[in-house]
Amino acid sequence: MTAIFGIVLLACVADDLDTKFVQVHPKFDDPATFERSEGQTRAVVLIHGLAPHPFSTEKAKAALLHEWQKPDATLVRTLGADSDVFSFAYGQSVPVTEIAATDGFTDAIKQLRSAGYSEIALIGHSAGGLIARQFVEDNPNSAVNKVILICSPNDGASLAAQERLVRKAQEAFVKSLSKAARAEFMKGRTDKKIGPHVQFVCVVGDCGGVGDFVVSDSSQWSEDLQAQGIPAVHLNTTHPTAVRSARVAEVLAQLVREKQPRWENDKIASMRKTILGKKPPE
């Protein structure tokens, strides 16, 4: 059931994948629906990444919001000052590359557009950023017009290749985040680009020049994104604290509010030296 100021909460199983899409700010009394705040034109969707579940197959398959996606979280409250905020959760029993195409996610974006939001921003942490990126690449005519990746392993992460990190039900998801899996996936997507109407930013978490202790700097701001002029924001933060810090929350809220144009080659080159200590790719 859809109305200008009301849309039904989505909690479904698409292709055996459990997904959940809920409004977390403002939070309404009726959990069965969410509503566009009167006069509000911007919706922000928070997408989580990996949450290892080494002891519970049920939790690995369930769509569970992370603490930073919930109504009382610092990031939600900060973004909620000038946006309606939603959170997307999904079971982690399939490769990350399959999640962006699920009915639960694609239908949610369509319903936000139907509700009257003219600005739809996706903020993805870690693997959640890969979902957001893939969605706009595969759906160039979607209503999404801003994407912010936070500590996302565009080129994969070494940790994902380790054995016995999670239960068997979650192995496909974790392995899809490895460097080898990401390289194989991207090999067949050289024609996929970020549409010119989508403002796109990589937030690079870095501690002492070694990445965020989970994902390297070069994977967070990969060369294929640099080649498209995608800007980067360099922050002193670790992987888990990036979505829990009040300081980072203020930066993200500013990125959502302000325009994020593509960078020219000289600005890309300058930031490469700052973050990576490298010259631009030829």
Low-confidence stretches: 1-14
What is the structural class?
A: alpha/beta
Cα(first) to Cα(last) distance is 52 Å
Tell me the number of strands. 11
H/E series: EEEEEEHHEHEHEHHEHHEHH
Report Rg: 18 Å
- Under the CATH scheme, which architecture would be assigned? 3-Layer(aba) Sandwich
The top level CATH class name = Alpha Beta
Mean pLDDT: 90
Bin the strand percentage. Answer: 15-25%
Q: How many distinct domains?
A: 1
What count of helical segments does DSSP give? 10
The CATH topology assignment is Rossmann fold
Classified in CATH, the superfamily is Alpha/Beta hydrolase fold, catalytic domain
Helix content: 25-40%
Q: What order do the strands of the largest sheet run in, or round the barrel if closed?
A: 3-4-7-6-8-9-10-11
Main beta-sheet strand count, sense and barrel state? 8 strands, mixed
- Overall shape: it is globular
Key phrases:
Rossmann fold; 8-stranded mixed beta sheet; 30% helix
Structure summary:
With 282 residues, the protein is an alpha/beta fold. 30% of the residues lie in helices and 21% in strands. The chain is built from 10 helices and 11 strands.
Describe this structure in words.
This protein is α/β, with parallel strands linked by helices and 282 residues long. It has a single domain (2-275), classed as Rossmann fold (3-Layer(aba) Sandwich). 30% of the residues lie in helices and 21% in strands. It contains ten helices and eleven strands. The protein has helices at 57-61, 74-79, 103-115, 127-138, 168-175, 179-187, 217-220, 223-226, 246-257, 265-275, and strands spanning 2-3, 6-8, 10-14, 17-25, 33-34, 42-47, 84-90, 119-125, 146-150, 199-206, 232-236. An eight-stranded mixed beta sheet has the order 3-4-7-6-8-9-10-11, sandwiched between helices. The protein has a three-stranded antiparallel beta sheet with strand order 1-2-5, with helices on one face. Strand 3 (10-14) and strand 4 (17-25) form a beta hairpin. The radius of gyration is 18 Å and the shape is globular. The model is unreliable at 1-14 (pLDDT under 50).
